[in-house]
Amino acid sequence: MKTIIEPFRIKAVEPIRMTTRKERREKLAAANHNVFTLASDDVLIDLLTDSGTGAMSSEQWAAIMRGDESYAGSPSFERFQAAIRNLMPFDHIIPTHQGRAAEAILFSILGGPGKNFPSNTHFDTTRGNIEAGGARGHDLLIDEGKDPANLHPFKGNMDLEKLENYLQEHGDSVPCVMLTITNNAGGGQPVSLENIHAVAEIAHAHGRPFIIDGCRFAENAWFIKQREKGQQDRSIPDIVRDCFSVADGMTMSAKKDAFANIGGWLALNDPELAELARARLIQTEGFPTYGGLAGRDLDAIAQGLTEIVDEDYLRYRIRTNEYIIERLDSLGIPVVKPAGGHAVFIDAKALLPHIPPLEYPGYSVAAALYEIGGIRCAEIGSVMFGRQPDGSEKPAMMELVRMAIPRRTYTQSHADYIIECFAELAAKKDSLRGYRITWEPKLMRHFTCKFEPL
Ligand code: F0G
């Protein structure tokens, strides 16, 4: 059959409150035109993030009941640890309340002034945790990964020559080499198995540990199976094990590829580092057999990890993105290609060339989508990155709009609805106008700043 159906049926539903266009216009004005400050009840299709927004399965809800809330030595932890080790064979598994807590612990041990951390692209919270301790993070992505239209199959790859030069230049100031799979900030683009192995080899040749930020590891493995030569006959768990077998540790947000609403972990092989991490964990998160989580969360994650590597699920998951991208493409909407794992990215600079970067074309797309169809998505452009530490403002490298797709939450008709909204947006794109910021906080302005349409 050609039609790829959602490989699940629906047992519990969460009604969407329908709104009129007039209502949405008023809501947006009342929110000072910032979609982040809208109440989620006023949103029809929420594509702000794929993090913690997925639907749990009936087996995960059953696991929630199975959860054991003992302070120490809970069997929920045993199941959590076994499910992780089945895919990622690390010696020490340290539960945390989400991904950034794992990062905070890792960089509190490895980071500090004068230290340097390379990655393909650090996610915002990773960079934030590195910089908070006085260290610096550097992104060594291949050039193809920076071009929205380039069709390279692994646009999340690290540039190996740059890594080699980086390690020679920075020497002992590099406590570890990192790699984010998939590369969220670059459009959910995957990293090839070959690149993962090569990065590990270079890091180890320089005596540096190799740590993977594995938030979307299953989507990455699916792309390896689909796009990398010689990988087609392997199972997804087998590919996942291969990716992590060359690493010395990982950070993880279970809110992504573990189907949980909360959770994460730090995994390490080095016993001395793990001991330091556990000491820090007890101070900031909790006892080592629950971290920052309830026993029931540990069980939901353990079950989620058995479901995320299912090929029927991954085929449907990635096909949803491809389906939306193909149709947006035929409407003439510039999108980041090829399809990434968790999100569809719109190139707002190419779509709205009449709006200068500092009148925020990405924001104009986000606001128009909300007004047209109640869709909420995030600008990843000059609103997010434009304000410089010295107070000046400069355009971001790209003006993107991210539509992150929550896991197992929306159906094909929601996808068709999104496409229909874009058809209207395409028809009136020349009449869209830019925005002006009337108020902003000192840091992270995109969450709370106030806008005025121009
Ligand atoms: N690493 C990557 C690649 C991420 O995408 C995220 C979160 C984190 C680390 C941090 O994990 O949220 O559990 O603390 N990304 C979310 C997003 C927030 O919307 O892309 P966390």
UniProtKB/TrEMBL annotation:
EC number: 4.1.99.1
UniProt keywords, alphabetically: Lyase, Pyridoxal phosphate, Tryptophan catabolism
CDD domains: Tnase_like
Residues where N6-(pyridoxal phosphate)lysine is found: 256
UniProt domain Aromatic amino acid beta-eliminating lyase/threonine aldolase: residue ranges: 46-419
Broad class of enzyme this protein falls into: lyase
Catalyses which reaction(s): L-tryptophan + H2O = indole + pyruvate + NH4(+)
Keyword Phosphoprotein: no
Complex and partners: Homotetramer.
NCBIfam families, per database record: PRK13238.1
Protein name from the UniProt record: Tryptophanase
UniProt organism field: Profundibacter amoris
Protein's gene: tnaA
